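Need tokens for this chain, all 267 residues.
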Amino acid sequence: IDELWKHYHSYSLDIRLVSAETADRERLYFDRFSEYFGSPDSADALFLQLTPNTIISFRKHYAENYGQGSRNWMQKTLRQFLKFSYNRGYILSDLSFFSPSVYVPQKGKVMKAIPEDCLKTVLTSMSGDSPADLFDAALFSLLSTYGVRGIQIRRLRLLDIDWDKDCIHFPAAKHGRSIDQFLTPHVGNCLMDYLLKGRPKSCEQEVFLTLKKPHEPLRKSSELSGIIRKRLERAGVKLPEGVSYGSHGFRHRFASQLYGQIPFKDL
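Here are the structure tokens for all 267 residues:
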């Protein structure tokens, strides 16, 4: 049994690539498992007792004597050990399916969002007519009004804005739905000012382009987050701990405003 453990321990470190701390901790659960079968002296004696019924019986016994956290560790260790035993040919069938993960339900929660006073401070700081001010004013107005993802801002194209019908279309992202919204006067004015006075001349169809040459669309989320963080810092805004300095902070604020009014799954 000790030799079997050494082989499994090496397998955990070299193949599963778990930490040494995790591999050492699994010894406790390995010992409890083997003790259930009478502490067999040889690995062969242990393997002969392993069947779907005996594994299920062991899990039931363990659940009656230990809490959820210990059960989670045991079933994870047992599942990996059974996979190891099958892959090495010690048992003829893969019995790991009889030791599934312990399901732990998670409660939904409202993420921390940008406070109203911080938002007002940063919005009032963009009163200039420089290309950077016009860019940021259009960007922040979209983020604070519609609560869309950063990637939807980066992918927004000129044709997505219907000036005649006062509508704006945001493309779908992360297997979600596309969004069509009323173009508010404030957002429309900010976008118009940026497009006429701040946006570089370019054949690119994306609304937001880098202000420095070669004036390309924002390809990475880090570029958008960097712009948002820089503007917040210029405005002297320090967000509370846990609030995102990227587009997620605005998205969380939008969701928190709808909390209690719209089903949580729709937020």
